[in-house]
Amino acid sequence: MTQTNLSSSLCSTIPIRVGIVGTGYAAKARAEALKVDTRSLLVAVAGHIPEKTEEFSQTFQVQNTASWQQLVKREDLDLVIVSTINRDHGAIVRAAIENDKHIIVEYPLSLDSTEAESLISLAAKKNKLLHVEHIELLGGLHNAIKQSLSAIGKVFYARYITINSKQPAPVKWTYQPSLFGFPFMGALSRLHRFTDLFGKVDNVSCQSQFWYTEADLYNACLCSAQLRFSNGVIGESVYGKGDTFWLSENTFTVYGEAGTLIFTPKQGQLLQGEKTQTIEVGARRGLFA
Questions:
Q1: Do the beta carbons of residue 82 and residue 71 sit within 8 Å?
Q2: Could you tell me which CATH class the domain 137-280 is placed in?
């Protein structure tokens, strides 16, 4: 996220006039938050599927814009929220900044790391807010993990497993590599938890397997990454989804010389010998809901 002084631009316009690109779950969550905040005014939406875009515009009483290309050029907008397919994030963000808009974008900023760096530089040059929404770093689970690390002494190993069983597998863009990206790019939050907790990564080893039904569509994937951090910690992230899995799992385990932490989205545990302590986990919400 780039930091910029907004006192002379965004914050001088109250309410902030907002347009959203996207009509799915994340876009609806943003719209609901904006509707109850008097500092913002949701003006317009652009989506990929006309019927869903019209439904969204009716639900939230906003203008239906034919395309994101038209939306970013609207002069009645101060801020654009990008909540659409991962493939288009970079192009939309660039166009919006070039049209003097501030940006909130769901991760990843871009499927191309070079383009992402270029967008950060462009936002800084034009003095525009560029906030990449990484809810995983702001929610209760991650904060609970960070606050509990000191209880287990020197950490030497961490494992994060997220497997989502889907019976049957959905036919949607999150199962299409061209739209979602490589699983660990589209699911970047898994790796961001590690780097936020343990810092710089020196070495990476990754394995992946896909069950394709078409050239650009799979019904299941499995990715495993082992990370060696500069501080000596070994981290392992396992990400899987689809119909080859018959049991879902979401567990973050951290091993330290003085204890072990085990977290699920609902609660955590501190294990030290025969002693087990329950750790509360707060809400899973980001700065922009």
A1: no
A2: alpha beta
Bigger pLDDT: 187 vs 11: 187
Measuring CA to CA, how many Å separate 93 from each of 135, 208, 231? 19, 30, 35
pLDDT single digits (tens) 249-280: 999 999 999 999 999 999 999 999 999 999 99
Q: Which pLDDT score is estimated for 8?
A: 46
pTM score: 0.86
DSSP labels for 83-105? -S-GGGHHHHHHHHHHTT-EEEE
Parallel, antiparallel, or unpaired for β 249-256 and 155-165? antiparallel
Helices 50-60/25-35 angle, 10° precision: 20
C-beta contacts of 5-9 below 8 A and 24+ residues apart: 5/127, 6/102, 6/129, 9/78, 9/102, 9/127, 9/128
7: pLDDT strictly greater than 50 = no
Exposed e or buried b per residue across 258-276, where buried means at least 16 C-beta atoms within 10 angstroms of its C-beta: ebebbbeeeebebeeeeee
> Bridge-partner residues for 33, per DSSP?
none
Return the CATH number of 10-133, one of 3.40.50.11810, 3.30.70.3270, 3.90.198.10, 3.40.50.720.
3.40.50.720
Parse the chain into domains and list their residue ranges. 10-133, 137-280
